[in-house]
Design brief:
This is Cell shape-determining protein MreB. Belongs to the FtsA/MreB family. InterPro entries: ATPase_NBD (IPR043129), MreB (IPR004753), MreB_MamK-like (IPR056546). Its main location: cytoplasm. The structure is a single chain. The chain is of the alpha/beta class. It has 3 domains: 6-137 and 315-334, Nucleotidyltransferase, domain 5 (2-Layer Sandwich); 143-180 and 256-310, Nucleotidyltransferase, domain 5, CATH 3.30.420.40; 182-250, ATPase, substrate binding domain, subdomain 4 (Actin, Chain A, domain 4), CATH 3.90.640.10. 41% of the residues lie in helices and 27% in strands. It has a 5-stranded mixed beta sheet, with helices on both faces. The longest helix is centred in the last third of the chain and has 24 residues, at 244-267. The mean pLDDT is 90. Bound molecules: adenosine-5'-diphosphate (ADP) and magnesium ion (MG). Adenosine-5'-diphosphate (ADP) binds next to α6 and α7.
């Protein structure tokens, strides 16, 4: 029998991933688009556009249209989405096979924004377009038994937001979202270095520092890293060495906010499901879950088991693609 192609799109604030049932992940690129302000044309998308951040001439601006977890500019978001679909459409046979597409949108998105996303995907030849909530997609992608009557807790730490959701019986029982994620951590690192060393560093450098020597807890073996930036007094380039302990202090507040969001969600959990959490624990996903020591720190603070999803950066995309089977059930549950 002819089977319809099934496509899942994770429209994340930092990264966009496209998954197909037959080929797995076919696209994984930063959610960045570079626009020429004079012509309003898209000059580059994804990795190519991210490389331009902080290095472009004045007429070309790299934009992250989803940066703070909301769709700041849905026109640019649609353009970016179309550019990515164009990139993979041959590979996934978008127009030939008329696929069914499921898109996972940031939870803060409004009806208008959702419609814009829906339209952008439809105009690319999709037969049907469904939108899915992020915690459900993350839980499916992390292989949790979402349609069973047990509490599945997922914590998705992304770029612009961190989302905590408790899913049971195919629906969201309780959820919480904070506008704190990897981006905020990068900003705190930039701020720390400016304040303590009078040196200005870019977003990319800050993200590298976080990934290399960032830790979620203070008790770790100290590491150091050499970094380069611009001396704000002389205006000249300067190299300094920073330590993982000071980076930890810069990240501390953001981490506390993520922890607070998890605590609140667990407190709002119906008592019948609380017991499950003590047994099964919670699952971490999203790029922020990869911060060193995150799993141990959260487990220590929350006194429940904390697991890392098999592919934290890919779970939402995989879950979105796989959700199709459940979509009708989910639509009923979220109505
Ligand atoms: P979104 O779903 O919002 O697009 P992702 O789940 O793709 O976000 O995660 C992106 C965030 O994860 C970025 O802020 C990135 O810096 C961060 N990240 C990725 N890898 C690591 C790592 N190894 N350590 C710490 N943070 C990481
Ligand atoms: Mg995400």
């Amino acid at each position: 029998m002819f089977s319809t192609a099934e496509v899942g799109i994770d429209l994340g604030t930092a990264n966009i991933l496209i998954y197909t049932k037959s080929k797995g992940i076919v696209l994984n690129e930063p959610s960045v688009v570079a626009i020429d302000v004079n012509t309003k044309q898209v000059v580059a998308v994804g990795t190519e556009a991210k490389e331009m951040v902080g290095k472009t001439p004045q007429n070309i601006i790299p934009i992250r249209p989803l940066k703070d977890g909301v769709i700041a500019d849905y026109d640019v978001t649609s353009q970016m989405l179309k550019a990515f679909l164009k990139k993979v459409s041959k590979q996934i046979g978008m127009s030939m096979r008329k696929p069914v597409v499921v898109v996972c949108t940031p939870s803060g998105s409004t009806t208008v924004e959702r419609r814009a996303i829906h339209n952008a995907v439809s105009s690319y030849g999709a037969k049907q377009v469904h939108l899915i909530e992020e915690p459900i997609a993350a839980a499916i992608g992390a292989d949790l038994p979402v349609d069973e009557p047990v509490a599945n807790v997922v914590v998705d730490i992304g770029g612009g937001t961190s989302e905590v959701g408790i899913i049971s019986f195919g629906g969201v029982v309780s959820c919480n979202s904070v506008r704190v994620g990897g981006d905020k951590m990068d900003e705190e690192i930039i701020h720390h270095i400016r304040k303590n060393y009078n040196i200005l560093i870019g977003e990319r450098t800050a993200e590298n520092i976080k990934m290399e020597i960032g830790y979620a807890h203070q008790n770790h073996k100290e590491e150091t890293m050499e970094i380069r930036g611009r001396d704000m007094v002389t205006g000249l380039p300067k190299t300094i060495t920073i330590t993982s302990k000071e980076v930890y202090l810069a990240l501390k507040e953001s981490l506390e906010q993520v922890l607070g969001a998890i605590r609140t969600t667990l407190e709002n959990c119906p008592p019948e499901l609380s017991g499950d959490i003590v047994d099964h624990g919670i699952v971490l996903t999203g790029g922020g879950a990869l911060l060193q020591g995150m799993q141990e720190w959260l487990s220590h603070e929350l006194i429940v088991p904390v697991h890392l999803a098999p592919n934290p950066l890919e779970s939402v995309a995989i879950g979105t693609g796989r959700s199709l089977k459940m979509i009708h059930k989910l639509q009923k549950a979220t109505k």
